[in-house]
Specification:
By secondary structure, the chain is of the alpha+beta class. The protein contains 2 helices and 14 strands.
Length: 286
């Protein structure tokens, strides 16, 4: 029997022969493809091969690309968060700078108005800063950073850029205390209207309003009109300084006077820069 065809040697020989045949076939296809410049069986084989491998490549790309995007996005997200944090810090810094600039501008405007007062012109004065509010149950007052060393005396009027705020009631070497016109013990002679009607503005213990006494019934008065210091009362205050505007007025039959309130022109609750006028009771300069 020819057992060599079926023995172990036969089984080994056949795969070798098959491999040789496949290699030769491959070389033949390559040669044919080259000679036919992309046509013929070689081209068909290549096209078939591409049709098999292209979907595999596309599927691999479809899987790999999202993973690549995830890692790329993660790194970009971290970078963007850092940039966002940096920009937020810059914006915050700019906002603070704007607030500071606005504050300085407001202070500069206030000082400019204080230097160029439209009232009490010709009177010497000392500029000062309100460095402390000292209201008590019996007195509404503020402390200034200037005193006798700067020429300030008890009794002198004190104004803001908008109008009268009070008068000096005590002095030390480098500070002074001002009794505000809102204090219940404070009174200011005022005049108003085309006929210069005379009245008396009295503090009510409130920063926002004063009572006006001695306004005769029927006296012409208008809401919003300004009352000025009259210069009377023995000259405690020089004439012509704005005090407040009429906020309300009323009259009931049988009353001996009009009931009038005015709102101070100066913001008594938020004072910063003021001037002490060199004027003493009796109408004399300090």
């Amino acid at each position: 029997m020819a057992t060599g065809d079926y023995g172990t040697g036969g089984f080994i020989a056949r795969p070798r022969i098959t491999l040789v045949v496949l290699v030769l076939a491959s070389l033949t296809l390559v040669t044919i493809s080259y000679k036919s410049h992309g046509g013929g069986i070689g081209s068909i084989f290549q096209n078939s091969l591409r049709s098999i491998t292209n979907p595999i490549r596309s599927s691999a790309d479809a899987v790999v690309r999202p993973i690549d995007n995830v890692f790329s996005g993660a790194f970009h997200y971290s970078s963007l968060k850092q940039q966002e944090s940096k920009l937020q810090h810059q914006v915050s810094t700019l906002k603070n700078q704007v607030l500071i600039a606005n504050k300085y501008q407001s202070e500069a405007q206030s000082l400019s108005k204080l230097i160029n007062l439209p009232f009490a012109q010709g009177l010497p004065s000392v500029a000062a800063i309100v460095d402390n509010y000292s209201p008590t149950n019996t007195q509404l007052s503020v402390d200034l950073d200037k005193g006798s060393s700067q020429g300030i005396k008890v009794g002198e009027p004190v104004v803001s850029s908008l109008g009268l705020i009070g008068r000096v009631v005590s002095v030390t070497s480098n500070s002074s205390t001002v009794l505000l016109i809102a204090d219940p013990t404070s009174s200011v002679g005022v005049e108003f209207g085309k006929s210069n009607h005379i009245a008396l503005a009295v503090g009510k213990g409130s920063f926002s309003s004063l009572s006006v006494a001695l306004v005769n019934p029927g006296t012409p008065i208008h809401k919003g009109e300004t009352m000025f210091t009259s210069g009377l009362q023995g000259g405690i205050f020089p004439p012509g300084i704005p005090v407040g505007v009429v906020a309300s007025y009323s009259y009931l039959p049988g009353d001996l006077q009009e009931h009038v309130t005015i709102s101070p022109l100066a913001n008594l609750a938020h004072l910063q820069y003021v001037k002490v006028l060199e004027w003493l009771p009796g109408g004399s300069k300090g």
